[in-house]
Write a structure and sequence with these properties.
Blueprint lengths: L1 H19 L22 H4 L2 H4 L1 H15 L5 E3 L16 H6 L5 E5 L6 E5 L1 H16 L1 H14 L4 E3 H6 L1 H4 L16 E5 L5 E5 L8 H9 L26 H12 L17 H17 L4 E3 L18 H5 L4 E4 L6 E4 L15 H45 L1
Antiparallel strand pairs: 1-3, 2-3, 4-6, 5-6, 7-9, 8-9
């Protein structure tokens, strides 16, 4: 029995020595820290015009595209009156068209006095400019879709998901087939559940915005392909004060290894800071590909399983207020990438962003036109009331 005990002690002591000397135990590991970030309103990000008007821009451009396809860019309201749900029009289509007189001009139709609408010269010219941009920068626009697909598992996305993100990616409203350039490696494939998807056949290595900026600054050696701790640029909102322990956690988070959204992350510990940094990196890259570098948070939920994101990945927007901002305008929650709206951001502007800004100007012109119409109507009403009072006064004198 004594001999057995001595042998057991030797085995335990030798195994402990072996475990202590394992190199993996000397590597740095950060576990997930559940911190609460208090939301702070920031008027700068809440008032970005093309983001603020985005819910109205989408149906406006859809209607503009439909009307432009008719002869003389004119349609009866009956041609689109029942397509409000399809076009994301929040009210009746006729009422919506009348809200923007600088874009849609109303007139009486040739028969039965039905209301017709046509594009104003400014709107028609802007539509042609948008088509020209889509044609001239076609490869750039479709390359953004290619990057999104390359981030997904199996490098394939369902066509229904791509259709739902078309507005954010700035894809033309024409048929998908017109954009499937063989040079970019697109192919339509049959997915496991029977639905059609769009895949990319490519072995090229794609770098994220974070990696390209790090290479320009000399903090990453692309030839070695290292995944050193690339730090996210932080943009604290005015008046946002974090507790000391949260600031310390952010410092530790920044030191965690950066895993590119285009690389395999299946070996990451889901409870580690490296895993959360990968989630933040995916959301950062995703918003950098969008036209407005923003998106409704709920619209991104469809990408969760395709991008290999955790169940509650959307909480990353709340946990990192120095990287993202959540705008609660328009009765929805919009995630905005702060880096894109600061000087020397290193994020390339989308080719269609300039066109959407011009659409916003037309929307503001419409608001002025409607305001002047209301003032004019009130003025006429006051004059009528004044005349009635004068007549009443004369009658009482007689």
């Amino acid at each position: 029995m004594a001999l057995f005990r001595n042998t057991l002690k030797k085995l335990v002591s030798s195994s402990e020595a072996t475990i202590i000397n394992l190199p993996c135990l000397h590597t740095r590991k950060c576990n997930y820290v559940n911190v609460y970030m208090k939301w702070k309103k920031d008027s700068y990000y809440d008032s970005i015009p093309h983001i603020l008007y985005s819910p109205f821009l989408k149906p406006i451009t859809s209607l503009t595209n439909i009307i432009s396809q008719y002869p003389n860019a004119c349609i009866p309201v009956s041609a689109v009156s029942k397509r409000g749900l399809e076009l994301d029009v929040p009210v009746k289509v006729a009422r919506f068209l009348r809200l923007y007189p600088s874009i849609f001009e109303e007139f009486v139709g040739p028969q039965y006095n039905h209301p017709w609408f046509r594009l104003t010269p400014q709107a028609l010219a802007l539509h042609e400019e948008e088509r020209a941009v889509c044609c001239d920068r076609k490869k750039d626009i479709w390359m953004r879709l290619k990057k999104l697909i390359l981030m997904s598992r199996g490098r394939v996305l369902p066509l229904r998901v791509i259709q739902g993100l078309r507005w954010y990616l700035g894809l033309p409203q024409s048929s998908f087939d017109e954009g499937f350039d063989s040079d970019l490696g697109f192919e339509v494939v049959e997915m496991e559940d029977g639905e059609k998807g769009l895949g990319v056949v490519s072995d090229e290595r794609v770098l994220s915005v974070m990696e390209m900026n790090a290479m320009e600054k000399g903090t990453r050696d692309d030839e070695e392909g290292s995944i050193e701790a690339i730090e996210f640029p932080l943009y604290p909102s005015k008046g946002l004060r974090l507790k000391r322990k949260i600031e310390n956690w952010i410092d530790e988070f920044q030191k965690a290894p950066y895993v590119s959204p285009y690389e395999d992350s299946s070996n990451l510990d889901p409870t580690s800071d490296a895993s959360e940094k990968r989630v933040v990196g995916v959301l950062h890259e995703l918003l950098s590909l969008f036209v407005e570098h923003s998106a409704e948070r709920k619209k991104l939920l469809c990408l969760r399983k395709f991008l290999g994101l955790p169940q509650k990945f959307y909480k990353a927007f709340e946990r990192h207020p120095h990287i993202f901002y959540l705008s609660l305008r328009n009765k929805t929650c919009t995630a905005i990438l702060k880096q894109a709206y600061n000087q020397n951001s290193g994020i390339e502007a989308h080719p269609l962003l300039r066109v959407r800004k011009k659409y916003v100007k037309l929307i503001k012109e419409s608001e002025v036109i409607l305001k002047n119409r209301r003032m004019k109507t009130r003025g006429v009403h006051r004059e009528d009331v004044g005349l009635d009072l004068d007549s009443v006064e004369r009658e009482t004198q007689h």
